[in-house]
Each structure stands twice: as C-alpha cells, then as structure tokens.
C-alpha cells in the first residue's frame, strides 16, 4: 500500500515477505508520493524477520524506470522487487538494464505472470532473466485478476487451472518459487483455507495475502502439519531399513512406496 500507516502495519506482522505497493494500490496521480512513502518506510521501520519487498509498476506503464531508480538508489534498499505484468523477453531485458544502472550486483526479483501473452512467453522470460547480468529471479506470482480480464474469462478457480499449473511447472523446472493467486474474499476464511490447501496440492509454495486475518491460514496451509512430518520421517526411516534389506519398493502403512515417494517425503522435511 502507499500510506505510511499501512506500511507500519505491514512491518508489525509476522510475514515471510511484506510487499509495499507502487502499482494497483496507488492512484496514478500519487505515484511519486508512494515512492517517497515507501523509501521513508524502508529507512525508518523495523520489519523484523520479514523480508521487505516493493512492487513496482509494469514496464508497459512507462513508470518502471522511475520506480526502480527511486527504490534501489534509496539509502535503504528493499530485499526484493516485484515486477508486475512481465510479458516478453524485451521487457525482461529492459528490466535488467534499469537495475544495472542502480546497483553493481544482481538484485533479487519476483515477477508476475498476468496475461495470455505473458503465459505463452513464460519459458523465454525465465531463461532470459536467469542469464541476465543484474537480475536474480526467485519466484513467479500468478496474477489471476488481470489474467482472466485478458482472456475474457471469469474469476473461477477452474477457469485458471491450466495457467496455474503452467506457472507451477515452469517455476519448479527452473528452481523458482511459484506463488498462487490472491483470495479477494478476505472475510471468507473457510474458502481461503480450502483454496490454499488446493494450491499447496497444485505445487505452489505460497499464496498472496491482502489482509492480516489471512496470514495464519496461509502459513498453516503451506507448511507441513505435525502429522505429515511424522509420516514423512517414519517413511524415510522405513525406506532406509528396506534398502539395507535389499528391497526396492515396499509397503508402508498400506501404501506402495518407491523412490519418488521417498523424494516427496524428503521435501516435506
């Protein structure tokens, strides 16, 4: 958000990443004010364990250069920048050029896939950023609202299942974190829980959050439960015992277990 009270609120929450916004949360006439407010927040607020991020405007908006220069030339840089609506290789290269003008070292970047053409170009965008001199891509956020508007679809979870799975697949293939869609009905915590659990099952590593009440539900949904951890640890132990006995596949708690299942358990731990 662009208000200092909201920035203070974000700094006080137990989050993995708090993203201060220059884009959709800010009126066009207030972009310069938002940049200054964000810089002031970075300079003065203690975010504790929470990483500090800033979402800029898109390349196509014409505002990205001013955003990046304001944020990265500030006396206190954020830990990461988030780039919305990254649609093409040319935009990825432009982003690298602007960042290179502000810092001598590669800078961590999260980018958002929010359009049909961005989804089509996703593979090329990722490989371009991985080769870029001043960008360290770390995550991909799927932006469903702009995406469904672009494809003239509805904001139904089933309508974006293909796009969500493609984002997960490409992100995982290149060791990036896939971040799921925002749940805008912030008072519907049961619906958030169900959608988050499905997102975890899809392969997402996290989900965007727009209200403090959503935080504990998301942290629970995207973290293994004590029961899951116990199951995984026991499976790993049983696998080792069966390997020593010369067995490949074996049965564990009524299920057939082989190496792919072991890998899933190891990632859980």
Could you explain how this protein is built, in words?
With 269 residues, the chain is of the alpha/beta class. Helix content is 48%, strand content 15%. It contains twelve helices and nine strands. It has helices spanning 4-11, 31-44, 64-72, 89-100, 116-120, 122-131, 144-151, 161-173, 189-202, 215-221, 226-244, 259-268, and strands spanning 17-21, 51-55, 80-83, 107-113, 135-142, 177-180, 206-207, 250-252, 255-257. The protein has a seven-stranded parallel beta sheet. A two-stranded antiparallel sheet has the order 8-9. Strand 6 (177-180), helix 9 and strand 7 form a beta-alpha-beta unit. Helix 4 (89-100) packs parallel to helix 6 and helix 11 packs across helix 12. The chain is globular and about 65 Å long. Mean pLDDT is 91; it is low at 1-5.
Short summary of the structure?
This protein has 269 residues and is an alpha/beta fold. The chain has helices at residues 4-11, 31-44, 64-72, 89-100, 116-120, 122-131, 144-151, 161-173, 189-202, 215-221, 226-244, 259-268, and strands spanning 17-21, 51-55, 80-83, 107-113, 135-142, 177-180, 206-207, 250-252, 255-257.
């Amino acid at each position: 958000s662009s208000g200092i009270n909201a920035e203070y609120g974000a700094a006080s929450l137990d989050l993995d990443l708090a993203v201060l916004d220059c884009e959709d949360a800010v009126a066009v006439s207030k972009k310069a004010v938002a940049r200054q407010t964000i810089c002031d927040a970075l300079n003065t607020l203690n975010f504790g364990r929470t990483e500090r991020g800033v979402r800029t405007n898109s390349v196509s908006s014409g505002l990205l250069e001013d955003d990046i220069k304001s944020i990265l030339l500030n006396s206190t840089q954020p830990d990461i920048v988030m780039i919305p609506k990254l649609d093409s290789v040319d935009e990825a290269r432009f982003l690298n050029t602007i960042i290179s003008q502000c810092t001598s070292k590669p800078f961590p970047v999260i980018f958002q896939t929010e359009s049909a053409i961005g989804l089509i170009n996703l593979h090329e965008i990722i490989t371009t950023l991985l080769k870029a001199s001043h960008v360290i891509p770390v995550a991909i956020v799927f932006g469903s609202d702009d995406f469904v508007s672009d494809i003239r679809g509805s904001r139904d979870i089933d309508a974006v299942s293909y796009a969500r799975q493609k984002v997960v697949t490409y992100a995982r293939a290149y060791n990036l974190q896939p971040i799921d869609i925002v749940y805008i009905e912030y008072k519907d915590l049961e619906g958030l829980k169900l959608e988050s659990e499905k997102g975890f099952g899809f392969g997402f590593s996290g989900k965007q959050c727009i209200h403090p009440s959503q935080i504990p539900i998301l942290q629970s949904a995207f973290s293994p439960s004590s029961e899951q951890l116990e199951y995984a640890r026991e499976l790993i132990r049983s696998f080792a015992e069966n390997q020593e006995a010369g067995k490949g596949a074996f049965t564990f708690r009524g299920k057939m277990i082989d190496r792919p299942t072991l890998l899933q358990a190891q990632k859980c731990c």
